[in-house]
Amino acid sequence: MAPIAAAQAAAPVAVSAAPSIVASETPVLTGDAILSPMVGTFYSAPSPDSAPFVKVGERVKKGQVIAVLEAMKIMNELEAEFDCKILSVLISDGDAVEYDMPLFAVEKL
User: Fold this and answer.
1) HSE toward the beta carbon, residue 20, CA cutoff 13 A
2) What is the pLDDT, as a whole number, of residue 53?
3) Cα(77)–Cα(69) distance, rounded to whole angstroms?
4) Is pLDDT of 12 > 60?
5) Model pTM?
6) pLDDT tens digits for range 22-62
7) Cβ–Cβ < 8 Å for 80, 103
8) 59 in any annotated domain
9) Is 20 helix (H, G, I), strand (E, B) or coil?
10) Contact 21, 33 (CB under 8 A)
11) CB-based burial label for 12 (10 Å; 0-12, 13-18, 19+)
12) Which long-range contacts (CB under 8 A, 24 or more apart) does 47-53 make?
């Protein structure tokens, strides 16, 4: 019979921890924003081949439709809550949105 070799213990290896970077899904805002009033899907235009409701740099009036949020197969128009200037659109067309999620960075007028 051949001798059975004993298993050697593995020597510990030093591992340096890499810094973890966590990207925030919600952009950090320093000014005013228009928030999502519901959970749903964001649409910037009334139909895929239509122009968007608003563009960056555009001034909008309170009550003006600025997007559509689809919830439970119902299209809900999102209106500006106050007069403002659109600084940036924070969500891409067709993205899922959560309640109170920032959709537009704005400057109140």
Assistant:
1) 3
2) 97
3) 6
4) no
5) 0.71
6) 444 545 556 799 999 999 999 999 999 999 999 999 999 99
7) no
8) yes
9) coil
10) no
11) exposed
12) none
Q: Output the six-digit token pair for 83.
A: 């007069």
Residue with tokens 């007069």: 83
Q: Assign residue 66 a region: left if phi > 0, alpha if psi is -120 to 50, beta otherwise? A: alpha
Segment holding 42, helix H or strand E: strand 40-43
The CATH number of whichever domain residue 58 belongs to comes to 2.40.50.100
Q: Amino acid letter at 37?
A: P
What type of residue is 23?
A: A
Tell whether the torsion through CA atoms of 77, 82, 86 and 87 is positive or negative.
negative
45 assigned to some structural domain: yes
User: What is d(CA 103, CA 87) in angstroms, rounded to the nearest whole number?
Assistant: 11
